[in-house]
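Feature request, filed as a ticket because there's no other form

It would be nice if the structure record came with a short human-readable summary line next to the tokens. Right now we just get the raw output. Example of a typical job, pasted below so the devs can see what we mean:
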Amino acid sequence: MKKLMLFAMVASLLFFAGCEIKTDNPDNPVTPLSGNGLFSVSESKQVRFALGNLEYDSINGYSFATHQYDYGGDFGWGTGSNPTLTSTDDADYPSFDDWGNYIGGGWRTLTGDEWYYVIWDRADASAKRGAATVCGVHGMILLPDNWSGGTFTAGFNGWSTNVYDASSWSDMEDAGAVFLPAAGSRYGTELDDVGAFGYYWSSTPYYEDIAYYMGFNDYGVYYYDNSYRFFGHFVRLVQDY
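Raw output as currently delivered:
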């Protein structure tokens, strides 16, 4: 498995299929516009997703990745006030402190039930998710409730099922599509499964040292309850609509 040091995702200024891949962006505003799409996370609530994964550096604090296909940063569960914590001691992650609290603008982390609903329980859920490669980056696409955009094949049958360059992905994004990169997971200061698996935190605890997260690879999307809180997973915040 590929191993990388903490927050060292991919070399900056690489180009895949005409797309610039950037791992940090000091000039990126903290509260960019959320996406155009609306996603049901319960029978009575919809959200908009941020247009990039959360990231953090000691100089600029929290920001959002420039593009949806940038990896962003990996975080231990609920480390809003201590985003650089890499300890593997369960006792260092006693409760959830939402990263959205430190950004403002109503940003927050989805609960476990909300992740489950948007992926499995909303209308035509199975037709609105699938593996994809965007600008050379593997990941999962989620389509909004009322999708009427470009070409998309639902399902998980390898990363080559849906392939988009900068232009075609821009059209998808404008129509409300969300892309979650398969950025791997961190143990201590080392990342594994980069480009092969995506791991995204929920705000919901499962047990005293375990929390729910949403995970996927190119052959399926999964809902696990057995991730220790000290693992570094990725974060895609939402705003309630």
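Something like this underneath would help us a lot:
The two ends are 39 Å apart (CA to CA).
Residues 33 and 195 are 26 Å apart (CA to CA).
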